[in-house]
Amino acid sequence: MNMKEKLISAFQKRFNQSPSFIVRAPGRVNLIGEHTDYNDGFVLPMAIDRAIWIALRPRTDRRILLHSLDFEQPADFSLDDFTHKKGWTEYVRGIAWVLQEEGATISGWEGVLAGDVPLGAGLSSSAALEISLLKAFWAVSDFKWDGAPMAELACKADHDWVGIQSGIMDQMISALGKKDHALLIDCRSLDFDFLPLPEEVAVVILDTATRRGLVDSAYNERVTQCQKASDFFGVSALRDVSLSLFEKQANQLDPLIRRRTRHVITENDRTLQAAAAMKSGDATKLGQLMNASHRSLRDDYEVSSKELNMMVEIANSQTGCFGARMTGAGFGGCAVALVKKSLADTFADKVAVMYQEKSGVQPSIYICTPSNGAELVADFSKR
Fold it and tell me: Choosing a second label site near 339 at 20 to 30 A (CA), which of 41, 69, 100, 200?
């Protein structure tokens, strides 16, 4: 049973009738450009073929009732009167809040939600949830869908309702992804460019099966550290600090802030180099840049982990691997490897065995296909 059939069955069981719409929004893997988005920098993610799906139908009142197949607690509230709650339903309330805050006319609906984006793995399940919720509200309401502004709304919900100071990358790629392409995003202007993956490569996600409970607080801490560095240089964001300016004044910075700053500046440069490598189909160069990114995240930004470092080392020891790095906020979760397509299955098998032997933990490994962004998968409303 595929995800669409699973949702229709679950909806019929829950509500005793069929849904009017099915929407989906994908997770993502970031090829390079980590912790640069909230510094107005550049990122290079791709949407993956794992997503959050919602089957729904409109209600005649202004109630939201959403059941998740993954969590017991439903989201159940009136659009006219709701407050903060703990858990995943905060995202539902946050999206409802931000749409109304921006003046959108939205309607009530009921639905069932399911997904196959691994939770807490650094593959942006929360952004996929936010964008799928926006798509659900769009399906039953009267407002225009435009990917980049929708991503901005999701980011505002993160900041002002959920309380996470996220950048905009995750929401942008979930809203705008394109099959067989990655997306270079300028996180200041929100300009973007679709870049085809080199033909001979596969993207392999390596889930260490480790999770860290303090990711949000550590993430917000690094946002604050970057702002301190921006204040020192007299700029609005580290995007505006050149490597030459940094090197001239680096000794005046606190050593910790210096390392954080060096990562952001060099990572922006690596991301632009990676985009150029993709345009020319240079998988070798792209892999080298991914390896350099991991070293910087490990040593300067200090967001890697023993398991992530182990996974990256194992990946790079395999025949056919162009490069590998941790991806996502860090402290656990996933690494991503660029692998020769013809060797991807063998690579995945060998890495899984070696990682389990060394760590005692069984990893999950996904050979991913770049997918489209948020979609209306099915519209039964006119039947």
Answer: 41
Alpha-carbon Rg for the chain in angstroms: 21
- In sequence order, the 6+-apart residues with CB closer than 8 A to the CB of 226 are 38, 39, 237, 238, 260, 261, 264
Whole-prediction pTM: 0.89
Chain position carrying tokens 């060394």: 358
Instruction: Yes or no: say if 258 and 268 are a contact pair by the CB < 8 Å rule.
Output: no
| Residue 52 DSSP SS3 | strand
81-112 core/surface letters (b: 16 or more CB in 10 A; e: else) = ebeeeeebbbbbbbbbbbbeeeebebbbbbbb
Residue 296: its pLDDT value, please?
98
170, 231, 269, 300: which one is catalytic? Answer: 170
pLDDT digits (tens, 9 = 90+) for 318-334: 999 999 999 988 888 89
Predicted local confidence at residue 383, as pLDDT: 47
Kindly report the number of other CB atoms within 10 A of residue 52's CB atom. 30
CB 68 within 8 A of CB 92: no
pLDDT tens-place string over residues 118-154 = 877 778 899 999 999 999 999 999 899 999 999 999 9
> Measuring CA to CA, which residue among 39, 195, 209 is closest to residue 122?
209
Task: Report which of 318, 95, 113, 88 is spatially closest to residue 202, judged by C-alpha positions.
Answer: 318
Nearest-angstrom CA–CA distance, 221 and 211? 18
Q: CB–CB of 121/328 below 8 Å?
A: yes
Are 286 and 341 spatial neighbours (Cβ–Cβ below 8 Å)?
Answer: no
Q: Which alpha helices (H) appear in 250-282, and where do they start and end?
A: 255-279
DSSP letter for 251, please: G
Please say if 170 is a catalytic residue.
yes
Residue with tokens 């794992």: 50
The Cα–Cα gap between 71 and 52 comes to 13
- At 12-51, the pLDDT tens digits run 999 999 999 999 999 999 999 999 999 999 999 999 999 9
Share of the chain above pLDDT 90, in %: 86
Structural domains in the chain plus CATH codes: 3-195+372-379 (3.30.230.10), 201-368 (3.30.70.890)
* Residue 213 scores a pLDDT above 80: no
CB distance 45 to 175 below 8 Å: no
